[in-house]
Write a structure and sequence with these properties.
Elements: H1 10-26, E1 29-37, H2 43-53, H3 59-72, H4 89-94, E2 101-106, E3 110-116, H5 124-131, E4 136-142, H6 149-160, E5 165-171, H7 180-197, E6 203-206, H8 230-236, H9 241-246, E7 250-252, E8 255-260, E9 263-272, E10 274-275, E11 280-284, E12 288-296, E13 305-306, E14 310-315, E15 326-329, E16 336-346, E17 357-362, E18 365-379, E19 384-386, E20 396-408, E21 420-424, E22 431-439, E23 445-446, E24 457-462, H10 466-482, E25 487-490, H11 492-495, H12 503-519, E26 523-526, E27 539-542
Parallel strand pairs: 1-3, 1-4, 4-5, 5-6, 24-26, 24-27, 25-26
Antiparallel strand pairs: 2-3, 7-9, 7-15, 8-9, 9-14, 10-13, 11-12, 11-15, 12-14, 16-20, 16-22, 16-23, 17-18, 17-21, 18-19, 18-20, 21-22
């Protein structure tokens, strides 16, 4: 029998090449890094040089860049590579970076996401934003100017935010005649500063973003330098993702996925560790335990998932798990705490107000918080510490923060995802500070699943009928009082004196009053109409029940 052979079509060949390329790319590791430093030290030009020399620009991009370069005229007839990342009109007009610009590129060895952050002191908050997710920081220094205040500030912030891979890029070496003595003097000065702030190691590279020396290829003008080029260092430096995969499993629930009555899954991005079907987990802060039944993704179920992947988990048991909860490996579940010690980087023009209530967003949950004690405040210009009653723009201070409910007790040093947070002004809704959890005051942490309030409690009475909720609240309050437990009913009438302008504001007042009453040892019974997400903190008890919640610990 004859066998017929058919040459593949051009489309099939192209598809095979594309599949091979995607498969190769998916296996490469990913490095996130930022460029930072002072104004006009060449951050944007350096990123543009990386993209240009790695041949990652399309013809239309090069044509647009040539056209824009002619209009700006900053580099004569040559290309102004900084225009590749300075996209805002204000940035091009002033020749500075204002917003954080992200670019993705890849080489044969690794994928990269680079954040070009502003150098001006006014935009330090933008630098903090870019650094919060970075694994490596390139600290640029203009070889003509040496180490500046902003160099020290950005280095300190990068170290504070947990970035342990630093590159001291001494730029514009072409403007100092490629002088080795200039490079050595800058490195020695930076080494002295690094020891003062606890930076253990860094890679110093002399380069020129404008001419490309030591960026992707070695420099003949700097034959005295025998270290790696910038791109060679970026391609080989270890990435933090490996360490995250080796840590205990933790994932913040971002969404409860319930497309129909037969499916309930908990979606989120895995912060650390790995998970498999059958693994035992704990839902924090409640501490309820179950086992993973399935790991669901758009492309089908997975036998295993690890840090960095976004998945939906289903459990073998019906346990209470909502947005903001943290799913952790049962064997490595952290304690919970309602009071934290933290480092704050204040990023608002308006100064911090001690004991004022702010929104604190950590992981996937937002809770009410107030700043109590203020410890040392670091002067990033001199690295000296001072005392103060408040924090102003760009101040970095140690504070104690009280929370309205417990969160997993994870330090930023142990978990950069679940140990970092932001503070939001409740009135203006603007982000006012970035925070790093440093520790927990004595007595603030407790085992997961322990009672939130040992004396009082917050109970939401649930029923579609307001009359039924009110009747149940009166019945429960009478029984509690008969047992010698103080109780208060919080309904719309009781809260009307607080001047709430809307139903949401009424709920917010109810939560705050209930939290304070429960801390004073009083059982707060709320009859406001609230969804499960809105009725937190507290426990939900059906109006028709007899007050016993089964496996819950609050029992009348």
């Amino acid at each position: 029998m004859a066998t017929a052979f058919r040459n593949p079509s051009a489309a099939e060949v192209a598809r095979a090449e594309l599949d091979a390329y995607l498969d190769t790319t998916s296996r490469k590791s990913l490095l996130r890094f930022i460029t930072c430093g002072s104004v006009d030290d060449g951050k944007s030009t350096l990123i543009g040089r990386l993209l240009y020399d790695c041949k990652l620009l399309f013809e239309d991009q090069l044509a647009a860049l040539a056209s824009d370069s002619r209009k700006s005229g900053t580099q004569g007839e040559a290309l102004d590579l900084a225009l590749l990342v300075d996209g805002l009109a204000a940035e091009r007009e002033q020749g500075i970076t204002i917003d954080v610009a992200y670019r993705f590129f890849a080489t044969d060895k690794r994928k990269f996401i680079v954040a070009d952050t502003p150098g001006h002191e006014q935009y330090t908050r933008n630098m903090v934003t870019g650094a919060s997710t970075a694994d490596l920081a390139i600290i640029l220094v203009d070889a003509r100017k040496g180490i500046l205040t902003q160099t020290r500030r950005h280095s300190y912030l990068a170290h504070l935010l947990g970035i342990r891979s630093l590159v001291l890029a001494v730029n514009k070496m072409d403007l100092v005649g490629y002088d080795e003595a200039v490079f050595d003097a800058i490195v020695e000065e930076y080494r002295t500063f690094a020891r003062e702030v606890g930076i253990e190691d860094f890679q110093a590279i002399p380069l020129s973003g404008l001419t490309g020396d030591n960026v992707t290829s070695g420099s003949e003008a700097m034959a005295w330098y025998d270290g790696p080029t910038l791109i060679a260092h970026l391609e080989t430096v270890p990435v933090a993702a490996r360490a995250a995969a080796a840590a205990p499993f933790r994932m913040a629930v971002q969404w409860v996925n319930r497309p129909n009555q037969n499916f309930r899954g908990y979606a989120g991005q895995i912060a650390s560790g790995r998970i498999r079907p059958g693994d035992e987990i704990a839902v924090l802060p409640a501490g309820r335990r179950s086992r993973v039944e399935r790991i669901v993704t758009f492309d089908g179920d997975l036998p295993e998932a690890r840090a960095g992947q976004s998945v939906t988990l289903t459990f073998t048991d019906e346990v209470d798990c909502s947005r903001g909860d943290v799913i952790a490996a049962a064997g490595g579940a952290p304690e919970t705490a309602s009071r934290i010690e933290a480092t704050l980087v204040w990023m608002a023009d308006e100064a911090m107000v001690p004991h004022r209530s702010y929104w604190l967003k950590i992981g996937a949950q937002t809770l009410s918080a107030s700043i109590g004690g203020i410890g040392p405040i670091v002067d990033v210009n001199t690295m000296e510490q001072r005392r103060g009653l408040s924090l102003g723009l760009n101040d970095i201070g140690e504070v104690t923060i009280d929370l309205d409910r417990s969160i997993p007790a994870l330090r930023y040093a142990d978990d950069r995802v679940l140990g970092g947070f932001i503070l939001i002004d409740k009135v203006s809704r603007s982000t006012v500070a970035a925070g790093l959890v440093q520790g927990f005051p004595q007595g603030a942490s407790r085992p997961a699943g322990a009672l939130e309030e040992p004396d009082g409690a917050i109970v939401w009475i649930t029923d579609s009928s307001p009359a039924a909720r009110a009747a149940a609240a009166r019945r429960f309050a009478d029984r509690l009082k008969a047992l010698g437990r103080p109780a208060i009913i919080l309904d719309e009438e009781a809260l009307s004196g607080l001047g709430a302008a809307s139903a949401d504001e009424m709920l917010r007042h109810g939560r705050e009053v209930a939290r304070l009453m429960s801390r004073a040892g009083v059982h707060a019974l709320l009859t406001l109409d609230a969804t499960p997400e809105q009725s937190r903190p507290g426990r939900r008890v059906a109006a028709g029940s007899d007050g016993d919640e089964g496996d819950d610990q609050w029992v009348i």
